[in-house]
Specification:
By secondary structure, this protein is an alpha+beta fold. It has helices at residues 5-9, 32-39, 61-68, 90-94, 113-121, 173-199, 205-208, 212-218, 225-243, 251-264, 270-300, and strands spanning 2-3, 17-21, 24-25, 43-48, 51-56, 74-75, 80-85, 101-105, 108-109, 127-134, 137-144, 153-155. The protein starts with a strand and ends with a helix. Strands 7, 8, 9, 10, 11 and 12 form a six-stranded antiparallel sheet that branches. It has a four-stranded antiparallel sheet with strand order 3-2-4-5, covered by helices on one side. The protein has a two-stranded antiparallel ribbon with strand order 1-6.
Length: 301
Amino acid sequence: MAADSLAASMGLKDGDVIYKVGNENVKDEFKVTPLILTTDATSVTVLRGGQQIELPVPSTMIKSLSQTKGAGFVSPRFPAIVDAFSKTSNAEKAGLKKGDQLIGVDSVFTPYFQDFQREVRKRKDSDIIITALRGADTIKVNVKVNEQGMVGVAPLSDIRQLGFETETKKYSFAESIPAGFNRCWKTLSNYMTGLKQIFTGRVAAKDSLGSVISIGNIFPGVWDWESFWTLTAVFSIILAFMNVLPIPGLDGGHALFTIYEMITGHKPSDKFIEYAQMVGMVLLLGLMLYAFGLDIWRLFK
């Protein structure tokens, strides 16, 4: 794994193999950050130099990850193989080609893309010498780094082409039903953990709330049927949970009044229900406007 500065602050290092978050084993390296966010884990166990090391998760880590959305916290290390160029790529202008493997910046060896990216960012608005493998040849190219610390290359990121192992688990129709219920419950449990983190102050509401803009940004930019229907199911579960909360204006509010009538034998007055519904709607509309305002603020941040 490659660790960014936030991950390094809790003791993680490049090359660590993360195999446990809290008490949960890690089978998918891409789920390390979500596991830390949703399980309230207090430790991360890694393999380093053949030894098991348990690293504590700081109490402020959840809030920090929420602020950065976990971007780049930890990621699988992979070689810097050029897959595409930006429209104004200085690397392409200098002579680099698709398929070149970038292994050095000036005199620094960069076996992984994260190493290459880190070294290039250190040299903003300057000329560098990139060492690359092209077939059996090793070439050196002089490239200008722009003010943002980039040279305009996009690395090969297909995990299968890079040699990562993937696992596909298939279910029969009968097996898919309990598996679906288990995944539904786990999704709901993670959502409830997120709500608890907001109400206990471990996560700032402004970093976690969002409106339709945030929802739209979660969906991938290219069609992926699995991602689309998974996210659709997640939002359906969340909406169903929110709808049964005992808030006037929602179904849960109506159920609350019905339960009150069943217990006491007296129906709340129509005037009381009317005012309660008004208060509930004001709270809901206020929350919606607040979330939408946060999204607008993020767009111009």
